[in-house]
């Protein structure tokens, strides 16, 4: 089935495509190191809010609301069973972003960035057309409750989608190798 030129199609071969039903190669958040800090902040938020309720002091309430916001923002890191990044025959999908058609991709590369004492691995997907034409399925319009949470992607100035690969369950070089291999296969 040919893909539409306007990038608005979200229905393939009798099956709706959304973030939870994409098929193909998929990467999720890692289960090891990431969950613990989110749980700690959530427990700390509960303790601070309970202290505010018991003592009636505003300072505990403010600290509790801040900790709750941090835990809520990072909640997607706990969704280890949900595909966050991947690819299928139609293109590369990114949670909260959409499905980028293979022919719209100009380059796929992993860049190492030095941040403080860390090295961050960032997947950069360069597009050769406007974003509105590159997306087969556009998932950027999120419900308000979901829009306040962490997104795995950011959009660069030069039409480049950037994704931090460090929290994922596969090594950055393996993700890059697989996506480049699929891109070369499906764009031909």
Per DSSP E runs of 2 or more residues, the count of β-strands stands at 11
The main β sheet shows up as: 5 strands, antiparallel
Helical fraction: 25-40%
Strand order of the largest sheet: 3-4-5-6-9
Shape: elongated
The pLDDT mean sits at 82
Describe this structure in words.
The protein is of the alpha+beta class. It has two domains: 11-29 and 82-187, no CATH class; 35-78. It is 32% helix and 28% strand. It is built from five helices and eleven strands; from the N terminus they run E-E-E-H-H-E-E-E-E-E-H-E-H-E-E-H. It has helices spanning 35-55, 58-73, 131-134, 144-147, 172-187; strands at residues 11-12, 15-16, 25-27, 85-88, 91-94, 98-101, 105-115, 118-127, 135-138, 153-155, 160-164. The strands form three sheets. A five-stranded antiparallel beta sheet has the order 3-4-5-6-9. The longest helix has 21 residues, at 35-55.
């Amino acid at each position: 089935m040919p893909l539409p030129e306007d990038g608005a199609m979200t229905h393939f071969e009798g099956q709706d495509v959304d973030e939870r039903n994409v098929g193909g190669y998929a990467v999720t958040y890692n289960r090891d190191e990431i969950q613990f800090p989110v749980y700690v902040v959530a427990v700390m938020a509960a303790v601070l809010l309970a202290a505010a309720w018991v003592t009636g002091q505003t300072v505990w309430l403010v600290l509790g609301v801040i900790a709750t916001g941090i835990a809520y923002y990072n909640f997607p890191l706990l969704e280890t069973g949900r595909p966050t990044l991947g690819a299928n025959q139609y293109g590369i999908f990114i949670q909260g972003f959409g499905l980028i058609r293979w022919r719209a991709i100009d380059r796929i590369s992993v860049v190492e960035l030095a941040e403080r004492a860390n090295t961050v691995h960032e997947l950069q997907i360069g597009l050769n057309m406007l974003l509105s034409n590159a997306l087969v399925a556009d998932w950027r319009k999120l419900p308000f409750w979901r829009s306040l949470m962490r997104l795995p992607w950011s959009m660069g100035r030069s039409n480049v989608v950037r994704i931090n690969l460090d929290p994922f369950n596969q090594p950055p070089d393996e993700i890059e190798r697989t996506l480049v291999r699929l891109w070369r296969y499906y764009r031909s």
